[in-house]
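Weekly structure sync, notes
Attendees: PL (lead), two postdocs, one rotation student
Agenda item 3: pending single-chain targets
PL asked that the sequence for the first pending target be pasted directly into the notes so everyone works from the same version. It is reproduced below exactly as submitted, 448 residues in total.
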Amino acid sequence: MRVAMIGTGYVGLVSGACFADFGHHVTCIDKDASKIEMLREGRIPIFEPGLDELVARNKAAGRLDFDTDLTRAVKEAEAVFIAVGTPSRRGDGHADLSYVFAAAREIANVAEGYTVVVTKSTVPVGTGDEVERVIREARPDADISVVSNPEFLREGAAIEDFKRPDRVVVGTEDPRARAVMSALYRPLSLNNLPLMFTARRTSELIKYAGNAFLAMKITFINEMADLCEQVGANVQDVARGIGLDNRIGPKFLHAGPGYGGSCFPKDTLALTRTAQQAGAPLRIIETVVAVNDVRKLAIARKVEKALNGQVRGKTIAVLGLTFKPNTDDMRESPAISIINALIDKGMQVRAYDPEGMEEAKRLLPASVFYGTGPYEVAEGADCLVIITEWDAFRALDFERLKTIMRQPVLVDLRNIYVPEQMAQLGFAYESVGRPTGAPAESQLTAAE
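Predicted structure, written out during the meeting:
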């Protein structure tokens, strides 16, 4: 099949490369000429493990190409995907759908023959209706079906998620569109793919409901962590104890500084706005959004506590800037709020991240110093703070750190290390939801 993919961000580029790897011919389209030139040269504008090799292989095989003009690709395509950004709209938190509608108008102007227009971007309920209206107004004679096909890709594991998905949701009640989408995803049939067909509005809501529920699980365990700290319990054991219940499950029960990234913050906010407009407010999700926003700021107080309140003029070494490991994505990362709070309290920040530092330089104050590794930024520091659980931070040399730091203080916001062992190494240690010196009989690994 011939596929046009409009948008070359995480969703568009990963989806396009994976469809090409299935044997389809895919053209990825983006108005950013510099990005398209990078891709043509074999350079990947985002960090996603395995994506460079996947793109190179399918480009060499002639199944994947890139263009700034959608005309040829859309004319030839049986399915045209809209995978553009839907950021939060300034002022009201609604999803900004201007890029989606602009793409729909461009598709309408050039589409030939029967074409399935697939909304891959995360969009509020009813967007498919609007996309269809935009296309019909521009081209009343267009032979098109508008389909919802939300993505469920985790940054850092996006290729695996696409090729071995939990489910593929397709929102359409058109038999012709259903046949096209079934053929498109047929290569996944060997994996016993649960291909789920629903009404279009239902499909759109599934994506938002899924992200809101996961955000709620994260926020729930973070509040449990706060309670654990007050009553002397261990949040890792609590998470394991409830996660063994198969009605709850262990994933997304890893306490930390709050959720961030390109999806959860904007999607939870957009969902609450949609629900308010519909007259069915989602009070639980509204609270999740509010609690998470406050948490990112409040978590900086752990650094104050670790330094006994003496923070002005102190040097803080921060490890991890991206919202999660195995990505260069800084969008809504807890590190942004935490570092800004530390600087506001008079601290100097030195930071290191394996992939996110270039993006961080655009988002963080100019006073932040960026080092080439954890030990460079720890040199002379009064406190080491782990914000993102990159593998490179899981086996630090604490004897070396003790000799180069001004004070042996560690604030571990991802509960990577064991409190008792840190005490034996001579470090003042703060973690999330665990009493100081707590035994580690139930270490829970982050599953999200």
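Discussion points:
- Residues 180 and 212 are 30 Å apart (CA to CA).
- The two ends are 33 Å apart (CA to CA).
Action: rotation student to compare against the earlier draft before next sync.
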